[in-house]
Amino acid sequence: MAKWAGIIFFAAVINPTLYLVSIGIGVGSLIDANKGVNGVSYLTFLAPALLASAAIQGSSDEVIFPTMAGFKWERTFFGMRSTPITARQISLGLFIAAMARTSISVVIYWIALYYFGALDSPTAWLAMPAALFAGAAMAAVMLALAGKIEKEDFFFTIVGRFIMIPMFLFSGTFYPLSQMPVFLQFFGWLSPLWHATEIGRFLTYDYPISGPMLLMHFSVLAAMIFFGLTASFRIFAARLEK
Amino acid sequence: MTESLIHARGLTKTYGDFVAVDGIDFDVAKGESFGFLGPNGAGKSTTMRIIGATSVRTSGTLTILGKDPEVNGPQIRAHLGVVPQQDNLDVELTVSENIFIYGRYFGLSSSFINKKIPELLEFAQLEEKKDTKVQALSGGMKRRLTIARSLVSEPDILMLDEPTTGLDPQARHILWDRLFRLKEQGVTLLITTHYMDEAEQLCDRLIVMDKGKIMAENSPAQLIKDYSTKEVLEVRFGSEKNHEMVDVLRPLAERIEVLPDRILLYAEDGEQLLEQIAAKGIHPNTSLVRRSSLEDVFLRLTGRSLVE
Q: What is the 3-state secondary structure (H, E, C) of A112-137?
């Protein structure tokens, strides 16, 4: 982890910052001229979503690449499995390490958002655990999927084009989900990004959302973590114990 | 009777309809150097993975150090050193770091491992490379590192799956030398190979495997005595004449094997047989007298050669 500190920092900060500046400030100035969103500035509306998005993208990368390396490129998991370590420990260990690295990225990004003036409520720091919760949900699911992959080229393309980008665009990130026609809204319901964004917005400013809805968002993310990890344990074991 | 270190009865592994290991029995005693000899696809590596408490057997009994790998997997693995067929070193780490992290997987303390590392590097003749990234090492060096790494926990049983495949002759001999030393120290060795010279050199006892079954089991010398003659005369007549000569030569030798490019004649004294053939007016293009090897044993047992 120490070896890659420079790159982690770079990827964590630069990419999301570009979005922050271009869309957040650029588009934001248009919207704020029109009285903002939910009674707050566009930047404040956008910030929790960008933070969650950075956590999700980051945690996915931190899980997918080591899994591919461990099973296929370097086969290091097979080496680990010939010691007293179990398959479950390998997958859980990878998950924990990925979340640790993602936490660092999230903190750095949060600091950047703060200095851009996107977070001015005293509870704004709560956007971080909300974002990490989403990151964990995505990481758990990706861990299971990546554990199954034998040919990775398709997988990377599919994840990038058909999961990440649509999720980013249709999860109520840049505009409230309710702005979309109903038949497109369902996509948001499937997306961990939307659930985390709703929780994050509630935690960082006075966002109109009901208790049951919050509980639902929390439960979906918790379920993703639980089922993702359970599936990973089984998938890793099957592959390492053939 | 002392209890075997490894005890297997009716050991079977199937993948769907395919039977990789077909109900084999064997015992390995402490301090033995035990080999699995056979061609690719014989089931040797699969058997090794089952003994290594990695692959789960389909049926049969198996105890290692008195324990069942399905129940006490991690405990058994704590006493094993594994050198797999394909290296699985961490290429981004250095030689020393690879040994260190592997030791940590066994729960060994940092101080213990740090004391072991110079010893292991010396064993593997990799002292100069201790801070080199694995990516930069040659194939032979990587293999030596894998062996050194497998010894960090001072295992009771060292398992090597095709240890010298893909290595040049010099690297092979260095490796054999290292394994001899381990044998002298009393480590129990389990080796799979399709190289007969490796099997003859390193193993006290071996199992000849083919298509998931055991064809024979004994010491290399005894197998050769049982299944072959002392010497072999190899003769070549050119591809067209090869077949013609078979019936002429058959009554002259104890046994005859016909290969695509040459004929093998088995006898106690190869030179004498050559003279007898010449006396009959038969002059092969080339001839070679050598002593019998495990290759001949395998040929006798299965009708095929070890390396296809």
A: HHHHCCCCCCCCHHHHHHHHHHHHHH
